[in-house]
């Protein structure tokens, strides 16, 4: 019986819940066109596949990245597999077993390492892995590389990266007060109340669009997937941990793997100021550092997903 490749049937990702070390993780998969991954006939050293593993920022809902990743897949002509995963606790639904649980930054790190291990087991020997991280996802990408330096990681792409001194950034200083336990309870209560008052999905989506200026698809993600008390609490809790943990740049790691790294900075980014670009460019000349000239903001997925997707695809196509 011939196996049908989903990439020839769908122009949208395949959704699945992966159980990774006992945790249920929402995932998206864009299969490469051609032969489906199989380790049965792989020869040692052959490079059969290239897989892009996307690590979101915070909020860590992979659904925000659909237009961006769809553009990457289309612009790469379906030659690569793309896999993305939400952060633990950053989604709501029947897959959540303990809505009250708050996941630490280190638990997010270990989960992403475990997902890469699963991907490596799924694909043939010799598969090349590309890890793209957005915002704090760039820091996660570095941690994954540090833990698995021999897992075939070809490139690390850091998009608007927050890999050091987050608490000292303009936004870090302004928003730090939101990340204490009292604020978590207050914000969680407000979100629950909003969800109760505006229970009709279309009404809540309209309010989100009016308040944020998000387009319909992004407002749908925000209103239906983000605005849950447990999700918002996890986002804020994780942000608080980022403030405390992401302080010093791992210079030794970056220097050791400089040839694998590409960082893309914004000119007006208040989570990763332009000074970070100059620091990376001057102190690590072997790293490819770029400064955005298209006016993209830190949260590029909200309005600039396709433009960023075209840039990332161009880099991937050059590999």
Automatic annotation (TrEMBL):
Q: Which InterPro entries match?
A: AB_hydrolase_fold, LDAH
NAD as a keyword of this entry, yes or no, is: no
Where is this chain's protein located in or outside the cell?
Lipid droplet
**CC per GO annotation:** lipid droplet
Lineage: superkingdom? Eukaryota
Question: Mind listing the GO molecular function terms for this protein?
Answer: lipase activity
Q: Which Pfam family, giving just one, matches this sequence?
A: LIDHydrolase
Which key words are in the record?
Hydrolase, Lipid droplet
Q: Per the UniProt entry, what are the Gene Ontology biological process annotations, in alphabetical order?
A: lipid storage
Can the keyword Hydrolase be found in this entry's annotation? yes
Q: What is its main location?
A: other
UniProt lists the family membership as follows: Belongs to the AB hydrolase superfamily. LDAH family.
The name this protein carries in UniProt is Lipid droplet-associated hydrolase
User: Native species of this protein?
Assistant: Mortierella polycephala
């Amino acid at each position: 019986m011939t196996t049908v490749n989903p990439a020839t049937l769908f122009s949208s990702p395949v959704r699945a819940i992966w159980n990774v070390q006992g945790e249920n993780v929402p995932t998206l998969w864009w299969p490469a066109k051609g032969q489906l991954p199989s380790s049965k006939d792989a020869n040692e050293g052959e490079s059969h596949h290239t897989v892009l593993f996307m690590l979101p920022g915070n909020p860590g809902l992979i659904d925000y990245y659909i237009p961006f990743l769809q553009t990457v897949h289309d612009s790469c002509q379906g030659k690569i597999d793309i896999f993305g995963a939400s952060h633990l606790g950053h989604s709501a639904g029947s897959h959540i077993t303990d809505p009250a649980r708050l996941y630490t930054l280190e638990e997010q790190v270990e989960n992403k390492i475990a997902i890469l291990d699963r991907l490596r087991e799924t694909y043939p020997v010799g598969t090349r892995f590309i890890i793209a991280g957005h915002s704090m996802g760039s820091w996660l990408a570095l941690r994954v590389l540090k833990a698995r330096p021999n897992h075939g990681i070809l490139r690390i792409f850091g998009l608007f990266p927050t890999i050091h001194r987050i608490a000292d950034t303009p936004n870090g200083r302004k928003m730090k007060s939101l990340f204490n336990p009292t604020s978590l309870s207050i914000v969680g209560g407000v979100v629950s109340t909003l969800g109760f008052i505006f229970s009709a999905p279309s009404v809540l989506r309209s309010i989100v669009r009016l308040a944020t200026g998000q387009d319909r698809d992004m407002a749908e993600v925000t209103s239906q997937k983000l605005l849950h008390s447990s999700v918002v609490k996890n986002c804020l809790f994780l942000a608080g941990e980022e403030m405390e943990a992401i302080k010093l740049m791992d210079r030794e790691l970056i220097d050791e793997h400089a040839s694998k790294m590409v960082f893309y900075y914004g000119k007006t980014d208040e989570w990763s100021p332009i000074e970070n670009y100059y620091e990376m460019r001057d102190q690590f000349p072997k790293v490819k550092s770029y400064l955005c000239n298209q006016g993209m903001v830190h949260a590029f997925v909200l309005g600039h997903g396709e433009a960023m997707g075209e840039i990332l695809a161009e880099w991937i196509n050059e590999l």
